[in-house]
Amino acid sequence: MSPPVAAAPENAPEHCPGTESEQAGKASACDGCPNQNVCATAPKGPDPDLPLINGRMGTVKHKILVLSGKGGVGKSSFTTQLSFALSHDEETQVGVMDIDICGPSIPKMFGLDGEQIHQSNSGWSPVYVTDNLGVMSIGFILQEADDAIIWRGPKKNGLIKQFLKDVDWGDLDYLVVDTPPGTSDEHLSVVQYLKESGITGAILITTPQEVALQDVRKEIDFCRKVKIPIIGVVENMAGFVCPSCKGESVIFAPTTGGARKMAEDTNVRFLGSIPLDPRIGKSCDQGLSFLEEYPDSPATKAYENIITEIKKLLP
């Protein structure tokens, strides 16, 4: 596991030597600390690859993380539709980096099944959906789409580092990073590697029910601890849209007030709610832009309003 980005974790003992110290995880003060094993096995000292990462990321204007505490809330589908929408302007250059190492669904959602990574003198080339929308994912490296990725933290972290330092992203207006659920190795790694070049902010995806919201609260806490600006929260699957009559009905009841109430309680911006339209899933399976395929859907209007708000909030 990569070391935390802070000199000492928030739950560290009083005399913590710091995560980058040679004594990290080995000093007597570390006994009993929940981070002891992580600190003891993490690499120490300056990372020699950081200057290479900073060089690559120096040509990226906005770096946006898409996060969720809970799996299955539509994080990757939001990443996909957000990226399609941003790239609708042909003058806007968009990259998508999929760091959901064990569950890479991004290639499927962009219609890139079976594509492979190509190398050039300047590094790995992203796989392009259109001339201004490039994608990088472990899904392009697997021999078979159904192959399981059974990797421990260091190997995952090494691949994320390769995506940042070896991929020729070029000049980008947006790099959208699709992450796995939770707050684990992949999240710590991408935050650490992008610390110097800067992360624009995170968009948090949830569904209305409390079982999802309780994990998003942990994600908010994570962002604040590692100092990632939070762009806002999106409530996905907020009602069901009938494709025929356009009527909406509640599927996941917001028993504790939903994402809007949670955003108020945690002092985070609420970006909006997206109703569940079954054609979103169909579009993702077919690798198509839902917003272009179904412009009259209430879900499309919700997406457009949220994306407009996101653009306004970016520096």
TrEMBL record:
InterPro entries the record matches: Mrp-like_CS, Mrp/NBP35_ATP-bd, NUBP1/Nbp35, P-loop_NTPase, YlxH/NBP35
Organism: Linnemannia schmuckeri
Entry's Gene Ontology molecular function annotations: 4 iron, 4 sulfur cluster binding; ATP binding; ATP-dependent FeS chaperone activity; metal ion binding
Positions annotated to bind [4Fe-4S] cluster 2: 242, 245
Subcellular location: Cytoplasm; Nucleus
UniProt keyword rRNA-binding, yes or no: no
GO cellular component, one term: cytosol
Protein encoded by which gene: NBP35
Protein name as annotated: Cytosolic Fe-S cluster assembly factor nbp35
Region Disordered: start-end pairs: 1-22
Biased composition (Low complexity): 1-11
Domain of life: Eukaryota
Stored SUPFAM superfamilies: P-loop containing nucleoside triphosphate hydrolases (SSF52540)
Protein family membership: Belongs to the Mrp/NBP35 ATP-binding proteins family. NUBP1/NBP35 subfamily.
